[in-house]
Amino acid sequence: MSFNQLDTLYRQVIMDHYKKPRNKGVLEDSSITVNMNNPTCGDRIRVMMKEENGIITDVKFDGEGCSISMASASMMTQLIKGKDRETAIKLAHRFYDMIQGNETDEDLDLEDAEALQGVSKFPARIKCATLAWKALEKGFKDELNHEE
């Protein structure tokens, strides 16, 4: 597959997640809820997760923002549902490495989120792409601090 074909495919995946977001809505019985925003471009997001026995059994997001931030949130929710907390954090770190153009030997499949790898060429958009992922980490961190 040529670079142009791959670029077109990635754009289609991003736009599909933006126009038909997965897991968008409100999770009434969430055990973790975190709100974040990106004041640079006005993106705002709320990520809600429900954990049972250490597994993320449900996750939703709502908010508004650019196609990159909303598509990334959709991709993230699909990817972490059914995973344990440790795996979700590893996926977030793998995503950060990819988005910053860093090579990694971490063998974790980012699935549709790999479509966002081209964002590394646009530093101003990295915050858009990582907003939901940062909310995920903040939610876990805040909950741990709350329990202590």
From TrEMBL:
Organism field: Fervidibacillus halotolerans
Family (UniProt): Belongs to the NifU family.
UniProt-recorded name of the protein: SUF system NifU family Fe-S cluster assembly protein
Domain NIF system FeS cluster assembly NifU N-terminal: 10-128
Listed GO MF terms: iron ion binding; iron-sulfur cluster binding
GO biological process: iron-sulfur cluster assembly
InterPro entries registered for this protein in UniProt: NIF_FeS_clus_asmbl_NifU_N (IPR002871)
